[in-house]
Amino acid sequence: MAFLLELTLYLLPTSRFARLARKVGADMIEFQNVTKRFPDGSFAVKDFSLVVPSRKVTVFVGSSGAGKTTLLRMINRMVNPTSGKVLIDGEDVAELDPVALRRKIGYVLQATGLLPHRRIIDNVSSVPRLNGVPKKKAREDALTLLDTVGLDRSLADRYPDQLSGGQQQRVGVARALASDPNIMLMDEPFGAVDPIVRLELQEEINRLQRELHKTMVFVTHNIDEAFAIADQVVILKSGGEIAQVGTPEEILSKPVDDFVSTFIGADKGKRTLHLKQGEDGVTVIVDDEGRPAGILGDAE
Amino acid sequence: MQNEEFWMSWLFENFDLVASLTLNHAALSFTPIFLGFVIALVLGWTANRWLLFRSWIIAGGSILYTIPSLPLFVILPYLLGTRITDERNIIVALTIYALAILIRTVADAFAAVPTDAIEASRAIGYSSWNRFWHVEFPLAGPVLLAGLRVVSASTIALVSVGAIIGSANLGYLFTNGKQRDFLDMILIGIGASFLIALVFDIVLVLLGRVLMPWNKRTSLITNGRRILSTKGA
């Protein structure tokens, strides 16, 4: 149903349906022939077009210099394209006030970007306070948000540097959720935390998304992270050139070219798994190079 | 011993004079510190925001500091159209020196604000005005405070030069003590001047504690010893 609505919106951007969809907050993001050229003449992004479906997780994945962060930052006008348009529900963001636009869009950064001089609770309630929500109400909401992202309320009065990296990232997510935005932008949010915490945070994002259904754009250079959380994966070459767009299943089963195969590790057989009978009747799963990848469990 | 009793009795007899000179000295010091800080805040922030202006503003500040204080006190009445004994001359002169010291510190203070915090606040929707008051100014606070403490001490010392143009401050004890070859009077002036500097510094540090609870670097007492310093700044 949602898909039909989006399709209508996409085909008939000025139609009655589009206006209706806008009212219910479909929050579809569309890049139309977007180019970002640096003053030195090189391209960060060249003629990029893509529809980011609403209420789904879209992950931009690629190496450094692929333009993924630039694309993300065009959505909330932290970067303005040299040419082309970025539309949210058919509306050109270039025509919106950047400050108002940014307050309506959640943003999570790798460096957390928490304000070091503010307590956790005040960091989380930053945007509602800017929007004029009374302090008491904003703080109460912030405590609820700490629950939502799985943080203990006792952390509320601490300063950011008194928290672990993983906890700080959860605060970053809570802050992004504080104004109840429909769109969430995540710029390599888990790049600086250790692998175990990273897995926890990915699981947390999946759980939050099942509850909250945001239109989420997530940037990472880690393909496993992309597969773990994405509804739609966008693999980028340099200059924002799209190598392949699809669900994780589609990309794993049908990589379109060698670039994608190499990128996802299919060329080295990392993605082709075999069963091997281990000791004690356990079935071990190994990749093409014989490295164990896991054990075979019972299907539910 | 004889001498010690003598200066104590002199201070006791002239307590009203010393007290009023001290109060006037403190009042005369406060205005230039405050004005210098406010003006330096605007100029230093501008220097940091627009790199084009940075070298000009900072060079300007350094040049101000090379103006010798004695001729400045003498020339200012002509420039301002004030009487030579007018205390506004002293306030303007000392504001210029406060500015000279503070401009660079303020520019450095804003330059030292973590770019992560500024970028993030921009990304979540702080306008430039909000960003200045809620992010840049408080995060520049510890360095600004360190600069203010230096300016506070130097201004309090400089106010006494105003005595040569007839200002009634602790400098009077220096000029008069020199004329009468009365060392005790000079020492009492120095002691009172030090007392003002100490009080100002304590007030600044306490203000810093109240306004910047997240910052634990500014302290009066370190390792159990009473010293006046800002660690690491």
Can you give keywords for this protein?
heterodimer; A: 300 residues; alpha/beta; Rossmann fold; 2 domains; 4-stranded antiparallel beta sheet; 12 helices; 13 strands; globular; B: 233 residues; mainly alpha; two-stranded antiparallel sheet; 2 strands; elongated; disordered C terminus
Molecular structure report:
- The complex is a heterodimer of chains A (about 300) and B (about 230).
- In chain A, strands 6-7-8-3-9-10 form a six-stranded mixed sheet, sandwiched between helices. A four-stranded antiparallel sheet of chain A has the order 2-1-4-5, covered by helices on one side. A three-stranded antiparallel sheet of chain A has the order 11-12-13, with no helix packed on it.
- In chain A, about 40% of the residues are buried.
- In chain A, helix 7 crosses helix 8.
- Chain A has helices at about 1-10, 15-25, 70-75, 100-105, 120-125, 125-130, 135-150, 165-175, 195-210, 225-230, 250-255, 260-265, and strands at about 30-35, 45-50, 55-60, 85-90, 90, 105-110, 185, 215-220, 230-235, 240-245, 275, 285, 290-295.
- Chain A is an alpha/beta fold.
- Chain A folds into two domains: about 1-270, P-loop containing nucleotide triphosphate hydrolases (Rossmann fold), CATH 3.40.50.300; about 270-300, no CATH class.
- Helix content of chain A is about 35%, strand content about 25%.
- Chain B has about 230 residues and is mostly helical.
- Chain B is about 75% helix and about 5% strand.
- Chain B has a two-stranded antiparallel ribbon.
- In chain B, helix 2 (about 15-50) crosses helix 5 (about 85-110).
- Mean pLDDT of chain B is about 85; it is low at about 220-233.
- The interface of A and B includes residues 104 and 130 of A.
